[in-house]
Specification:
9 strands, alpha+beta, 7-stranded mixed beta sheet, binds phenylalanine, two-stranded antiparallel ribbon, BirA Bifunctional Protein, domain 2, 11 helices, about 350 residues
């Protein structure tokens, strides 16, 4: 048998094997065996140096041709096998479109956001506008314009985080009063606004203190506003929040930016005023600070206190929520324990 016939037979045999092969591994074995370094074709090509000069190119060309044909057949089979493997995998991955979907957990509004929105709605219904202030404030608006000059002892209760001597994290929402008053166009009527937001104090966190909490500021300025307006407004709002049966009580107090100033109490909603641990057996619960805007504060904002008067109040959102839901630790609001937050899913 000459070389040519040998190669011819090899081709037939290997082609046959390729046809019958079932796996990529088997196919690769065949490739290595037939075309690899130790394979018969490589052997033939190596042995060519012993051939005569006339035979050498003929045999060489033939051997190359056989090698190319086999390589091509192997490649084709490889693609077929790969396609099959993919189809098999797809066939196994059946998709049952009737299966129920994965449940997406729905979030809920944070209890403080809910309280804030509820109070905003009450004031919106009375024609107030909602104003946003700045959490980073200046000493000027946070203190000076609120009638708390640098030496004022009341500043001690409102120590805060200073960014520079002049820039600080606001200690209350009251600076929004000054910012709104100085811009308001009184030729178009009086001013009624609330401003909810975050405030900061240098406090050590415990069950009843937080270095960061939320207030809602309220401000009404117009001609002829009296303390009667303040009391009527707060009574209306507090009844909306704590129930129609509630009564309010004003006690004299002090704030540098209001004169007179009052502390507002609500009759205890737990014991109806009889005395219990929530109201500390007094029948009353303190809920906010308020007062008539100090003439000096009006003047500093360019408002004539002989023509205009107004009232202001500031309430703590956490305090309202804690009282209403008997929450005994302020830190629950901020630590994002879902067991706590989820209790307010259906309010
Ligand atoms: N700014 C006061 C505080 O944070 C609350 C307040 C606001 C009192 C408006 C009176 C009028 O304690």
């Amino acid at each position: 048998m000459n070389l040519k016939e040998e190669l011819q037979n090899l081709r037939l045999r290997v082609s046959q094997q390729i046809k019958q092969v079932k796996t990529l591994k088997e196919l690769d074995d065949i490739r290595v065996e037939a075309l690899g370094k130790k394979g018969p074709i490589t052997q033939v090509l190596r042995g060519m140096k012993d051939l005569s000069a006339t035979k050498r190119p003929v045999v060489g060309a033939f051997a190359n041709e056989i090698r190319d044909i086999l390589a091509m057949q192997i490649e084709e089979k490889k693609q077929t096998l790969e396609r099959q493997a993919l189809n098999d995998a797809l066939a196994q991955e059946t998709l049952d479109v009737t299966l129920p979907g994965k449940k997406v957990k729905r979030g809920i509004r944070h209890i403080l956001s809910q309280i804030q929105e509820e109070i905003e709605d009450i004031f919106l219904s009375m024609g107030y506008k909602i104003v946003e202030g700045y959490e980073v404030e200046s000493d000027h608006y946070n203190f000076e314009r609120m009638n708390l000059p640098k030496s004022h002892p009341a500043r001690d209760m409102q120590d805060t985080f200073y960014i520079s001597e002049e820039i600080l994290l606001r200690t209350h929402t009251s600076p929004v009063q000054a910012r709104v008053m100085e811009k308001h166009d009184f030729t178009k009527g009086g001013l009624r606004m609330i401003s909810p937001g975050r405030v900061f104090r240098r406090d050590t966190d415990d069950a009843t203190h937080s270095h960061q909490f939320h207030q809602i500021e309220g401000l009404v300025i117009d001609k002829g506003i009296t303390m009667g307006d303040l009391k009527g407004t707060l009574e209306f709002v507090i009844k909306k929040i704590f129930g129609e049966k509630r009564q309010i009580r004003l006690r004299p107090s002090f704030f540098p930016f209001t004169e007179p100033s009052v502390e507002v109490d609500v009759s205890c909603f737990k014991c109806e005023g009889k005395g219990c641990n929530i109201c500390k057996y007094t029948g009353w619960i303190e809920i906010l600070g308020a007062g008539m805007v100090h003439p000096k504060v009006l003047k500093m904002s360019g408002i004539d206190p002989k023509v205009y008067a107004g009232f202001a109040f500031g309430l703590g959102q956490e305090r309202i929520a804690m009282l209403r839901f008997s929450i005994n630790d302020i830190r629950y609001f901020y630590t994002n324990d879902m067991r706590f937050l989820r209790q307010f899913a259906r309010l």
